[in-house]
Amino acid sequence: MSKLRADISVSLDGYVAGPDQMQDEPLGVGGEALHDWAIELRAWRESHGREGGEENASSMIMEEAHAGVGAQIMGRGMFGPASRGPWGDDPWNGWWGDDPPFHKPVFVLTHHEREPLALSDTTFTFVTDGIESALEQARAAAGDQDVFLGGGADSINQYLAAGLVDELELHVPPVMLGGGERLFAGVGPDLKLEQLRVVEAPGVVHLKYRVVN
Amino acid sequence: MSKLRADISVSLDGYVAGPDQMQDEPLGVGGEALHDWAIELRAWRESHGREGGEENASSMIMEEAHAGVGAQIMGRGMFGPASRGPWGDDPWNGWWGDDPPFHKPVFVLTHHEREPLALSDTTFTFVTDGIESALEQARAAAGDQDVFLGGGADSINQYLAAGLVDELELHVPPVMLGGGERLFAGVGPDLKLEQLRVVEAPGVVHLKYRVVN
Predict the structure, then answer these.
(1) Higher pLDDT, B189 or A46
(2) Are B160 and B183 in contact (CB under 8 A)?
(3) Cα separation, A154 vs A133, whole angstroms
């Protein structure tokens, strides 16, 4: 069966976003520094329609993360807007403009019903009946390929606590946030992990684990 | 000037001891698993008077951690007993028997005065006037060599928050504790770190940082 792969950048002190997340600071105070390692890469810039960028040990990690992925799950906080709540009459269409960088079916966990949204070759399906339903739908859409779970913390924590994640890759820059959204909140010692791979790269370390069932 | 080197094993979810620390379980529930990587090594076993053990990528890390160290600082919780409080008439002499594995001057942070204690070639000096005084005394004892700070979390967090640590090495096994003593509690974004070195080893990753002043 296809794997559920959770993948997220986390500060050395365990936060995936800083304190005081707001509309114009969706990653909270200091949170953007979590992604500096990625934004410098040619692979990230290409996927976001930008030129330039560098190649380093993180390039392989980013390419591998997106290879063999047929569908993605994300939390409502990651889709936005920061205010959350009901969608309203002129609803938010995500942070990414008319050509989101996913290029595949995306399933958004939310408490508020909404019709599917197609933007270029990315389709967003809004799932209101829980994480297991979203995973089932994502697996059906992914076929033989894997399902990618890129955040936020709350979604990853729910899937980890439910024992539904197969692989977990953490990207850890030497950043301290001191507060915010904590990875592993509500996830305890029942989660058994095996260390699969460690890659040192400029300004970040990539840590990959297999969940032992 | 000699460096203050903090060095500690921490779970993937950020704890250096599990919940419910007690006299017969000083590292809390599940906490012993934090040190499995070390206890398997020949270098650790030799320093604790035991035979056997293996050599792997962690061996160099452990040897380096103890090289060039002229004095050590530890918290009262690490010295024990778990109950803490005043020393009493028949005081606790540490967890390590008549031949502690330190073989150097050790400065114990405590709120309760006590005469120095010599056990074999390890001397314990009890410091009641704060972390800066302990560091000053340890530096004087260390001469040209470095000062090692091995825990617990509270002591390391205090030194980090005060900007007194020069290097931080974390040993992270794929262990989840779900609660306990949290590394980096009270330490926020003012702590600026530079990633110095990453070493992958069986069942653990070693992450070394320099504090940027």
Answers:
(1) B189
(2) no
(3) 16
Provide the 8-state DSSP code for B38: H
- Render B83-127 in DSSP notation, one character per residue: T-S---SS----SSTTS-TT-SEEEEE-SS----EEETTEEEEEE
Which amino acid type is present at position B106? Answer: V
Q: State the Cα–Cα distance between residues B16 and B74, nearest whole angstrom.
A: 14
State the Cα–Cα distance between residues A183 and A186, nearest whole angstrom.
9
pLDDT tens, residue order, chain A (213 aa): 799 999 999 999 999 999 988 888 888 899 999 999 999 999 889 888 888 999 999 999 999 999 999 999 999 989 998 888 899 888 899 999 999 999 999 999 999 999 999 999 999 999 999 999 999 999 999 999 999 999 899 999 999 999 999 999 999 999 999 999 999 999 999 999 999 999 999 999 999 999 997
Q: In chain A, which residues have their Cβ closer than 8 Å to the Cβ of B12?
A: 184, 193, 209
Peptide bond between residue A152 and the one before it cis (omega within 30 degrees of 0): yes
Within 10 angstroms of residue A154's Cβ, the number of other Cβ atoms is 19
- What is the DSSP secondary-structure string of A105-146? EEEEE-SS----EEETTEEEEEE-S-HHHHHHHHHHHHTTSE
The C-alpha of B200 sits at a distance from chain A's nearest C-alpha, in angstroms, of 6
What is the spatial distance between Cα B124 and Cα B72, in angstroms, rounded to a whole number? Answer: 9
Q: How far apart are CA A39 and CA A109, in angstroms?
A: 26
A13: nearest CA partner in chain B: B184
The two structure tokens encoding residue A120: 């270029």
Give the gap in angstroms from C-alpha A185 to the nearest C-alpha of chain B. 8
Altogether, the residues listed in chain B come to a count of: 213
**Three state DSSP letters for A150-195:** CCCHHHHHHHHHCCCCCEEEEEECCCCCCCCEECCCCCCCCCCEEE
What's the sign of the alpha-carbon dihedral A36, B207, A167, A54?
Answer: positive
Contact B176 A191 (CB under 8 A): yes
| Mean residue pLDDT across chain B | 94
- Angstroms from A178 CA to nearest CA on chain B: 4
Q: Taking the complete model, does pTM exceed 0.90, yes or no?
A: yes
Give the ipTM of the model, two decimals please: 0.94
Predicted local confidence at residue A89, as pLDDT: 86
What phi and psi values does residue B41 have, to the nearest 5 degrees? -85, 145
Whole-number Å distance between alpha carbons of A33 and A116? 32
What pLDDT, on a 0 to 100 scale, did the predictor assign at position A82? 80
d(CA B187, CA B190): 8
